[in-house]
Amino acid sequence: RSKTRSGTTLPVEVVLSTVRKMRKLVAKLEASGVASQWSDYMEELPYSSEEHDRKRQVFGEMVGRSGGGGLAWDVGANNGTFSEIIAERFDRVVALDGDPGAVERMYRRIRDIGGTKVIPAVVDFADPPSGRGWTNTERLAFSDRATPDMSAWLAVVHHLAISAQIPLDRI
What is the pLDDT of residues 104-127, one digit of tens each? Predict the structure, then answer.
């Protein structure tokens, strides 16, 4: 038997059945419309596939020199292509992007290939989540939730400077 917060007891079979039903329901959920400003960026690169391959190679070498292990952030991850390179060396990669459509496409791609080390998340680094709740402690500010062992910021600075109008000396 399982005891609820109100003190009511439920048979374990009822709790397990409810959890199974919820998992099935969540597994069927699909986001509607993943098209957004940046969701197709990796399919419509402004440079050649050879240049993209070279960028992946150089980035992989740089990540390799970082030592690996632990937690890494990929800020501006788009579809997670470079997050996967990081995941070859790190235990967990939080792949962050401010575009919900890009993150949804990343999530689906990672799910479809069976990825388990990359965690996609929508975070706008021009306005990251602050502390919330009673005395701002129920939900910590994003910057206080974890300290990565490595972070990658590929093609992010110009978005912060131009789109978000954050002065370069503040970035």
Answer: 989 988 888 887 899 999 999 899
Cα–Cα distance for residue pair 152/149, rounded to 1 Å: 11
- Measure the CA–CA gap between 1 and 12, rounded to whole angstroms: 5
Residue 154: CA count within 13 A, CB half-sphere: 21
Q: Is the dihedral of CA 40, 46, 48, 54 positive or negative?
A: negative
The DSSP letter of residue 114 is T
| pLDDT value at residue 33 | 58
Q: Work out the burial of residue 84: count CB atoms within 10 Å of its CB; fewer than 13 is exposed, 13-18 middle, 19 or more buried.
A: buried
* Token digits of residue 109: 């791609």
Nearest partner of 41 among 77, 75, 93, 73, judged by Cα: 77
Tally of CA atoms within 13 A in the half-sphere of 112 that contains its CB: 8
User: Is 44's pLDDT higher than 70?
Assistant: no
CA distance 111 to 43: 18
Whole-number pLDDT of residue 105? 87
Averaged confidence pLDDT in the chain: 86
Within 10 angstroms of residue 73's Cβ, the number of other Cβ atoms is 25
